[in-house]
Structures are given as structure tokens and as C-alpha cells.
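Anyone else keep sequences and C-alpha cells together like this?

Example one:
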Amino acid sequence: MLKLAKRRPAEVPPQGTEGILGIGHRTYVGGMWDEIGALQFSFMVGQGLAASHVLLDIACGSLRGGVRFIPYLDAGNYLGIEKEQKLIDLGIAKELDPGIRSSKAPELVVSDSFEFERFSRRPDYALAQSLFSHLPPRDIVDCLRKLHAFSPQCRLFATFFLADKRRRNPRSRHDHLTFRYTQEQLAGFAAASEWSFRYIGEWGHPRGQVMTEFC
């Protein structure tokens, strides 16, 4: 009797520069470049984001949203923070028009510990698109606490993958593994970091991430 070979789990790309160079700066941040980039932009404008507002793009990656926000906002009003220098470098080199970069002067910070205090301006709005879907609870709370300390008046919109009950997630943050949380868990993260929490839910994300607001 023939034995069926066991299926190997799908290979997870390496994190960091090796992974970015291996699969490309667009794929590394999740692909669907035009679709999700446009979705982020239209959602934030729909929530009241105007050119005169300062926007903080948390985990801005290779500027999938940034290439739309930067031309729209007044000069200096786009703040992007990202832990991978290579993603920012490739986003600037491959995606952002040099003239736009010069005239709009986006402020970009490389940090893996949410060092928002390194920015010269405080945001009116903040966006964390597909960030909490890659973080354990301690890192989500750390992000929320540091943002509240830096700019407590801003409105943060953040996406996550919804779970119907608490589940066992990976122990450490990972760019390519998925973390899922319940609404109650997100509300708990907000309470632990002095934010009010509003569940928005469906907002058109092609992979089913739902939207929340912290204010």
C-alpha cells in the first residue's frame, strides 16, 4: 500500500532585509498595492482627514498608503514610522515621485519600538493598517500607550483580524504570521492605554480585516 507523503506547511518568508529583497517591497507588505492603498486613502478622507491635518502612518512600510497621502496632505503633514529601513528606502526609490518628496517633505522615522517622540509634529489622525494583525498584546498596548502619551488628542484608526473567541496567537511579533483578536480584547487594550474604543467593523478590506477607532 502506498504511503501518502505528508504535506509540508507553506514556507514563511524571512523577515527583514532578506525577505524584502527576496519577495519584493510590495509583496512584503501584503501585496494588493493599488487596491489596499486606495482603500486606506478613501477611508481616511471619509473620516474627515483634510490636507491641513497631520497624519501619522504607523508601520508605513514601503508607502503603499503614503504614495496617496503624501501628495494630498500639506507639506510636512505626513509622518511615517516603520521598523524596516529597507522598506522605506525602496518605497522612496521605487514608488514616490522625487518632486512630490521634495515639495511635500514627508517625515519618516525608522523605529521598532514606536518612538513617536522623534517626530517634530503631533498628529491629528493616525492609521495602523495591518499592524495589529502581526503583533502580540504587549506590543499593541505598548503602541497605544506611547501614542497616547505623544498625541492624546489624535484619532487612531487600526485594523485587525476578528476572532469569535480568544485564540492562541504566536508569542512574538512577526511580519508574515497572522494574529486574531476578539472585540473584547481590543477594548481591553484600549482601556489599558487610556483610549476610548469604537468598533467600526467591515470597511471593504479584501482580506477581511475589520476597522476600529481609538480616540
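And example two:
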Amino acid sequence: MQRTLIRELGSKSGETVRVCGWLETLRDQKRMQFLIVRDHTGSAQVIHEKSANAELAAIIDSLTSESAVEITGKVVLNPVVKLGGLEVMVESVSVVSKADALLPLGESPSIETRLDWRFMDLRTPENLFIFKIQTAAEHAMRSFWKSEGFIEIHSPKFMGSASESGAELFEVKYFDRKAYLAQSPQFYKQMAMAAGFDRVFEVGPVFRANPSFTSRHDTEFTSVDVEISWVDSHKDVMQFEEYWLRHVLQAVKTEYGEEIKVAFGTEIVVPEIPFPRVTMAEAYEILEQMGHRIERGEKGDLDPEGERLLCQHFQEKTGHEFVFVTEYPSVVRPFYHMRPEGKPNLTKSYDLLWKGLEVTTGAQREHRYDILMEQAKEKGLSLEPIQYYLDFFRYGCPPHGGYGFGLTRMLMVMLGTKSVREVTYLYRGVNRLTP
């Protein structure tokens, strides 16, 4: 008999069906046995009258929570039942895989225990829902890119040299020499611009040897990357991103908005366009007026509290959850970020903050070979290891720019969870390489 998903039971009244899933709970009463069975589409109540079949009653009595079972029975409408107003009158039970009686996750497990037993943790409807939302968001991203003529690329994750700062590289043995895990697909996105692809995107893993234990950091995560040719400035990239983000959030809200409100207590807000924009210099002034002073020194960046307060300011002033911070100092940006004419200490770059957290870094790139070389030297980089990259710009390259967006950060902020650990399928951090 073909399997029937639990979400389909409502259309099967009076029919005999085969349901496959996990035993969530069992109530074994004097005359009746009540089972709650769950699959990825929902939960259903299954009932059995003990006197009808003593052998079957014994099988049900021996079941343990979270055992994988196949149940055959007749669907009966019963408006009293909270789970869909129906129940399945069991005819047979097959124990596909019996679970150990003592489950590893208690009622309130720590996040580390949950990660140790992630496959069990992910069985909960709430956690499964996170990845349904992720799927909807990625589908919306791709549909928007496709409508805008983008090409999808898959860049290599083994690299012979750094694509960003050398401080966050994972070094690996690559046959008879060293290689590094890619910190981003940046160089290869730009290669696509030099190759004439015009507009590209990539959704793939990146690796950062960052010894951080914060709620927003991980050592491997999924990066969403975009690069666009023939831009006039980083403002073109910002404009594209805000239209893209509005489309994605609208799609998620349309499909799951009400369910997200119930499950996570947060509402998906589809943003108005344009997003607020503020230069780094202006951001410092606003923060100082709010009583938060950042020691600029050589860093010239925002701290986490500064990001939070700046978003709070624009939320109160404009009602907007997003804010672009532009004109980052060149000292804190990579060598390939373009600098404004006559302002060598600044860059045509930006960060996008959302509800107090940085979710994007974007910029117009430097596409002029001579200037790119000079900026690399200024950063103290040896040109030989990145000569293959510099060669991209020797034979005609259009002005271009793009951005990188962390998928797990997006989900964390969107759903209001406490950590990227909760929205990552399998988290990797400083102290975690398993499961």
C-alpha cells in the first residue's frame, strides 16, 4: 500500500491508509491505546481498542517513544480530536526501528547537548520548520536572480592563497604542498566579471578560522554571494540588494508569515525601499549623541553595541529595521575595495545592519590593474601568490561590485533566535567538529 502523508489524511475519510513516521507519545489506558505519530508534515492520533486484538495491543504496549513505525488503519473524522479533527483506527503496526527507551534529550537540554544529538533535536516540528523557511528563502533568492538574468557559479573551496585576511585561514595539506579553505568566493566572482558573465551568484560554504565564541560566529557557514558588472558605484549594489531582500522577505511572509508569528513570536516585516543610509562618520556622530563613544584609532569600525544602537536609532526615527552604513575606512577593508576619487582613506563599500546585527558586506571593486596592485602593496601583500587574481584585470574588466550575505545570520535575525547554532543544520565552531 502506498504511503499517505499525515497532511493528506483529511481527504482520506473512510479509507484505509498506511502512515509512516515516529511515535511521539503513547497513552496505554485500561480499554484503549492512544498513539501520536509524527512525520515531516504533521502529527496524527492513532487509536486501538485492546479487546479487538490482544496481540496488536501487546505490540503497541512494547513501543518506545521516537521509534520508527508503519501503521495501517482506517481514517475516521472526529471533531473532538485536536490534531486535524480525525484519527486513525489502527489495523496493524510494524516496528521498523525501535528507539532506545532512554532518550538522550530531556525536557530542557542545553544547546550543546542538542548539538551533540542534532539528529534527534531536528525531529521537533519547530526545528524542522526553520529549514522549511530556509528553503523558501533560498527559492525566493534564486527566482529573483533568475528574473534578473544572473548566472549561478560554483567556485572551488581549495585555494593556493588567501582571498581575504590571512589571519582567518584554515591551512590544509594538499598533496605535496599547502592549500587553504576558501574564506569567500570573492576572487572567483570577480573572475566571472572579467569572463563576461555580467551577473553571478553563488550559495555555498565558506570557512573562517575565527576563534570566536559569540552567538553570531561559526567556522563554517553558508555564504550567499552576488557580483554585478557595469556598476557606477557601490550605491548600485546597495539598490540591488534592497530590492532583492524585499522580494525574499515578501516571499517568506506570504508562505509562512502567520506560522512564524506563532512558532517564534516574531513578525516578518517587508521593508520599504530605499533603506536608510548613513556614512561611517555620521554613524559615529549619532552614536556619540546617544552616549556611546567608539575609540576609532586604527580600526575605524563599529562594535556590536554600536550596531545595535544605530539600528535602534533608525527604527525609532524611520520605523525601518535596516540601515546601510557606507564609506568604511580603507584601513579596515580589503585591498580590492575601490576608493573614492580624492579620498584614499575611504572605500566605496558598505555594511548592511538588520535589527542590530551586520548581515552583509558589499562594495564596488577596484577593476584597474595598476591601482589594484598599488593597494595590495599598501596592505603589505606579496603579489606573487595572488598574481593569478591580478591577471583577471590585465585584459579588460568592467567596473563591478557585489556583496556577501550570511544565510544563518539571516535566519537568526529573521526568526529572532539566540544564536546561529539554532538555525544551522550542523554547526561548526572552535570546539565542535561532530557530529
